[in-house]
Amino acid sequence: MGLIISLAFSALFGYLAGKLMNLAGPWYLYLLLGLAGGLVGGLLFGLLGFSSNSIISEAIVSIIGACVVIALYRTLRK
User: Are 11 and 27 a contacting pair, CB within 8 Å?
Assistant: First the structure.
């Protein structure tokens, strides 16, 4: 059950990042962006010495990471 909830939150965070960056696409694109954003955000913030201890900070890290992934996605598509 935890995996399903994690995927749902990843899709939600990917969706929010997509809306912030004006990205249109299918639901699975948001899910992948949310998952990649969580990984990239965790890596970036970990390198900076920050750690996330709550769901709010995890959400912020995931959304920022997904925005970075979207920017890279747009750059590579051109």
Answer: yes
Q: Per-residue pLDDT tens, the chain, 78 aa: give them.
A: 577 777 777 778 888 888 888 888 787 777 788 788 888 888 888 898 887 788 888 888 888 888 998 899 889 987
Closest CA to 61 of 71, 48, 49, 52: 52
Q: At what angle do helices 2-20 and 27-47 cross, to 10 degrees?
A: 90
Report which DSSP code applies to 50: -
Q: Per residue, what are the HEC states of 1-25? A: CHHHHHHHHHHHHHHHHHHHCCCCC
- Domain range enclosing 17: 2-77
* Count of the separate structural domains present in the chain: 1
Q: What is the DSSP letter of 49?
A: T
Provide the whole-model pTM.
Answer: 0.81
